[in-house]
Design brief:
This protein has five helices and seven strands. By secondary structure, it is α/β, with parallel strands linked by helices. The protein is globular, with a radius of gyration of 14 Å. 39% of the residues are buried. Bound molecules: S-adenosylmethionine. S-adenosylmethionine binds next to helix 5.
């Protein structure tokens, strides 16, 4: 499945490990780790990755915006996953491939430059008292929603 995840300045190494494990489970093509996001190999990351750092290809970019520019120049659609003005509903929007979705920092969210560069922004509606989800939970919801849509189109 030609789908990548970009982790824009994710602070927690355990969240990063968790997203490696989910990326493996959802069949993502790879991860872009950017900014302060920790990179393998690290014993603390393995507590949540459980070996997925060795099954999921990854690349590191110091500048998340440069990674987005690289992806767009290669014809990859970039979708920011963020609660931002004008964001589309995650289940109502169309997905086209290849694509890369971006999740952001646990407090600051996806950076403003990346949001401006993204082809589209999608948000997951919140139904409770809390205003946002854990970043790794958001990553999992989006990864499997994209996989569902990919399979729905009869792709392998
Ligand atoms: C905890 S959130 C960041 C803080 C959040 N912007 C806030 O003001 O509460 C961390 C990341 O998870 C993702 N995220 C969390 N909840 C989301 C939602 N409801 N819709 C879309 N993305 C979400 C985004 O990628 C976000 O950058």
């Amino acid at each position: 499945m030609p789908v990548y995840g970009l982790l824009d300045n994710v602070r927690s190494v355990w969240n990063v490990g968790s997203m490696f494990r989910t990326a493996d489970a959802a069949g993502l093509a790879g991860l872009y780790l950017a900014g302060m996001t920790a990179t393998p190999p690290r014993p603390d990351m393995e507590k949540t990755a459980l070996g997925a750092t060795r099954t999921v290809p990854w690349d590191y970019w110091a500048d998340p915006a440069a990674a987005v520019g690289h992806l767009r120049a290669a014809g990859v659609r970039v979708v920011a996953v963020e609660q931002a003005p004008g964001a589309a509903d995650w289940q109502g929007c169309g997905w086209s491939f290849p694509l890369c979705f971006v999740v952001g920092h646990e407090v600051r969210g996806v950076g403003s430059t990346v949001l401006a560069l993204a082809d589209t922004i999608v948000a997951i509606p919140m139904a409770g008292a809390k205003t946002s989800l854990n970043v790794a939970v958001s990553f999992g919801l989006i990864a499997f929603e994209i996989r569902r849509r990919w399979l729905q189109e009869g792709r392998p």
